[in-house]
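Q: Please design a sequence for this.
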């Protein structure tokens, strides 16, 4: 009777170190991958946690509170869209938005125009560029609260610096804080002056990135300064211009300290801005629901303006 070999007889032995080597290599690769993941989460994790705690969670709470009304006796009361309906029906809120947009329009316009002109001078052939850049950037790092207190000293009716100068020139004193026009002027001036340094630095970076060969080619073609500015500088500066415009819009709609500390929203509430009204609704009137609804509306407006600017920046001539 024929005897067949056993199954184990067909199994050949694995060369020493072959299977073990592959397994060890996979283990080392997996260990390196795990170590890289741990390092990555160690860097990104705290940022995500910070953004979640101070960004996402407050945003969700604001949306939630915007559908409620705070009552002294009943506490929080669900009212649905009533806060939003009140905002769009009450003409005082329309005036509030108009005042905010008016201040934002002038602040953004002056910042862009003067910031670009100063940046153009800073990139020219002048001595002491570093000194001038430092001087123009100093207001950015100074607290707005400090600047507001200095402004109050200047604008005081009795012993204010500006009124003392007017009296020395034979002019009458001016009640700065009782004039809506002058309060608009001072708020716009202070906000523009404080943020001008950041705008100048950004435009300087943008201008420095434009190749000099383009200007040299324009000189060969006989282009003058105005043609080079409008045909070369502005088109090449468009991405930076859009970035500065977006950040300026966000900053202009976040104006709060000058209104609170200098004008107090006066005279007669004529210089109130959206952020100041949110503060009043939440901390003065105790109406967190209305304050949250205004915050959501402001968020939507700023988001829409930002998207429009980004679309404009992406468009090609």
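A: Design:
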């Amino acid at each position: 009777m024929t005897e067949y070999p056993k199954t184990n007889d067909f199994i050949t032995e694995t060369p020493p170190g072959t299977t073990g080597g592959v397994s060890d290599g996979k283990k080392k690769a997996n260990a390196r991958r795990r170590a890289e993941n741990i390092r990555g989460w160690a860097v990104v994790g705290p940022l995500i946690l910070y953004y979640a705690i101070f960004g996402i969670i407050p945003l969700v709470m604001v949306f939630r509170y915007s559908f409620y009304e705070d009552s002294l006796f009943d506490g929080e009361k669900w009212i649905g869209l009533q806060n939003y309906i009140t905002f769009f029906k009450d003409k005082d809120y329309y005036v509030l938005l108009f005042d905010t947009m008016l201040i934002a329009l002038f602040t953004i316009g002056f910042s862009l125009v003067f910031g670009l002109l100063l940046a153009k001078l800073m990139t020219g052939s002048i001595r002491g560029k570093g000194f001038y850049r430092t001087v123009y950037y100093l207001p950015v790092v100074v607290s707005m609260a400090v600047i507001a207190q200095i402004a109050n000293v200047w604008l005081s009716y009795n012993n204010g610096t500006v009124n003392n100068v007017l009296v020395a020139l034979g002019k009458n004193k001016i009640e700065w804080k009782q004039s809506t026009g002058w309060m608009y002027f001072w708020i716009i001036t202070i906000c523009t002056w404080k943020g001008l340094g950041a705008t100048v630095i950004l435009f300087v970076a943008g201008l420095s990135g434009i190749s000099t060969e383009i200007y040299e080619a324009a000189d060969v073609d006989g282009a003058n300064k105005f043609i080079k500015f409008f045909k070369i500088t502005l088109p090449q500066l468009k991405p930076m211009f859009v970035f500065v415009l977006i950040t300026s819009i966000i900053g202009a709609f976040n104006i709060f300290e000058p209104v609170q500390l200098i004008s107090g929203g006066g005279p007669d509430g004529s210089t109130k801005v959206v952020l100041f009204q949110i503060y009043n609704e939440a901390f003065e009137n105790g109406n967190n629901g209305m304050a949250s609804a205004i915050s959501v509306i402001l968020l939507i407006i700023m988001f829409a303006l930002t998207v429009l600017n980004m679309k404009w920046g992406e468009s090609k001539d």
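Q: Thanks. Anything notable?
A: The beta strands are 68-71, 75-78. The mean pLDDT is 82.
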